[in-house]
Input
Amino acid sequence: MILTGLALLLLVLLGTPLFAVIAASALLAFSRADVDLTVVVIEVYRLAEMPVLLAIPLFTFAGYLLAESRAPQRLVRITNALLGWLPGGLAAVVLVVCALFTAFTGASGITIVALGALLYPALMQAGYPERFSLGLITTSGSIGLLFAPSLPLILYGVVAQQLNIGQPVSIGDLFIAGILPGILIILLLAVWGLWQRRGHDIPLARFSAREALAAVRVAAWELPLPVIVLGGIYSGFFAVSEAAAVTALYVLIVEVIIHREIRLADLPKVMRESMVLVGAILIVLGMSLASTNYLLDAEIPVKLFAYIREHVHDAVGFLLLLSLFLLLLGMMLDIFSALVIMVPLILPIAVGYGIHPIHLGIIFLATMEIGYLLPPIGMNLFIASYRLNRPVLEVFRSVLPFIAILIVAALVITYWPWLSLGLLGYR
Amino acid sequence: MPTRRLPPALARLIHIVTWIENGLLIALLALMVSLAGAQILLRNLFDVSILDVDQLLRLLVLWVALLGAVAASREGKHIRVDVISRWFPARVRAGTQALTDIFTIGVCLVLAWQAVRFIRAEAGVTAFGTLPGWIAELILPVAFALIALRYSLLLAHHVRQSLGREEIP
Output
């Protein structure tokens, strides 16, 4: 059993698609337990029995449409008009724009591709040091994961709902829980941006009401979008999947028919590309439904909890261990696979230590998010290096202070549950 | 994925399969977006909800996800951890890729076979409304078989690359 485990691990490290390795481990485990192997396929078929999942293809499609249109430019213009005149304003603009954009597109690197080449020269032009600008753009590719309707938040809710842990984990609650921690991350990074200005004589831009109005007018069609999505979900008017459907239709109409920035002939390409991402995520989810089923049958989380309990006595120690583990995990695994593979193991243990499942989800994402900036996987490093034509090592050096700030933020989020749960009225 | 080294008849067949995969994926996503939109309009404006549409939408998620996974196989875009092979010399890397291709093909064939058994066991069951279960479930064996097919094509390339008979892009 240990030998098969090692062989599977080797296959993972050699670059075997994760879904195949997870499927193989589920097949092996069930065959050892003398369970009919159709169970694996039956679990995959359960993808058709979860109503929330509908939100994933629809939001992804909408995100790809937005990325393909000139919405990113309009978003930059309006944010710049509203915030650009503040000291450290442009850095804040980058953070807010990227966070909003990532929330809608999922942290799959699209943010850096769509916005990086636009914002990077702007930062340098405004007098920010080159290293800071590079680091800021690279980091901004994944902040915003905590804001609705980000895919990882939805996926965490989906996985957590499969586990029957006794407390409900609604995706709407997760969306609310992410607000304050998400703002904390942006604020800390914005303060760092402000600090960069010391000693440099960066002229302040002036606020222009005329430009602000013009920017609002240009973006008039996209502005209602966050209101529809967030307002709709937070007020309970829409279920999450309904908000996704409205978003997809709305974006489709605005970008294809009203702005005409995506030609009808290009639409199939955008549809297909967005569904490649959806397929890659959901097939891993499908397989891990099977492996999770086995884990629960074999009571592995319970045994694991009993084992850890012997060595770690309180929640404080457990959370520290968890932070370290998630940081390491984030270096190896992308956030989607990490969610579907590890949450079934970690969540029951965390609940055993009295940690609220919603709080755990926010901890999970806030910590895993740092992995985007760490080698060897560090997706943002490679995308920024590619997009901005800078060596990966230079990009990595530029993000070091940002990594430190994100770690501080993740620790605050971990040890201050109120930040995640306060708005929900728990505790 | 280049098919120019394949026999023309096979290359043509794969071309047609690719076209069908793409067409179906795009058509089903379009159907999903329109149905989901229509359902909301009906529910909020007329307070009507069509039960079968909800179930159809859920089924569409499965179909779109699996067809998307097939497309991801074609483009090598599956989620994977690529930490070691990145540092290998190009031909060695092609060799280890061939190895992981074989593994993936094997797993997908087992899954396709189990899916066929699943459908047989469910013969006569209806999925919802009047839709027979086997139609709803058909995508499972088909998708796994197609993923195996895609990885077989990749395997052919990787083997040739590792033997030095094909340039490595």
